[in-house]
Amino acid sequence: MMLEVRNLSAGYGKKTILHDVSFSLESGTMTGLLGSNGSGKTTLLKSLCGLLPHTGQVTLQGMPLEQLSPRALARRCSLICQRSGISIDISALDVVLMGFNARLRLLDSPGEAHRRIAMEHLTHLGLAELAGRDYATLSEGQKQLVILARALSQDTPVMLMDEPDSALDFVNRHMVLGKIREVLHERQQAVLITLHDPNFALSYCDRLLLMQDGTIVTEIDMRNTDRATIEAALGIIYGEIAVLEYKERYIMTRR
Predict the structure, then answer these.
(1) 132, CA 20 to 30 Å: which among 71, 111, 122, 216?
(2) Rounded to whole angstroms, how far apart are CA atoms 185 and 143?
(3) Do the bridges between strand 3-12 and strand 15-25 make them parallel or antiparallel, or are there none, so unpaired?
(4) How far apart are CA 245 and CA 241, in angstroms?
């Protein structure tokens, strides 16, 4: 297992959001985290990468989270948020090069080999011509793709993604999610991704974790679960829905 979570509880101040959450992530799998707004999805991701205090146990490649230094954690786990928080003047290429920081020695800078790899990631995401552009001038969708390229450069066994498709149009959502799935299978990484639209999760994820009121109420292995079981599980959090089969994929719709 790349990541194991046992009886995790966390929150903000005195308010507990997560309650005894337990699950694991396998290498080479894309696991979707679904739930309504306020169910605890973002809180869970922040807890898993050490941004929030918690009780319970989180282990990354067998190492307890609390025993990892920030640099050691950054070599094992990357996080893509809905917004990057970058507000300085910096090129798109330099943003991608940030992904190598955890693997460089103190005071070292990325070299030509790093720049070549960073450009490869930008090229694969269709952003090669934007490498020299100021990151702040890019569209929100372009910014999110650059952050994805940075995460690919960080090259961690575990990738946590908080709605990385939120600023993308329909076509680019499919492109990005397809690229994420392709890369994780090639590198045998484990991805935990929150998605707003369950139909994208049904199309691209190997497993689904369904959250409600700060707990995981059920999980679905999309590789060996029938349509009726998937429909019943999704109905727990989405209410009266139907799951239809279309070209070897499932589509959720309202009844």
Answers:
(1) 71
(2) 24
(3) antiparallel
(4) 14
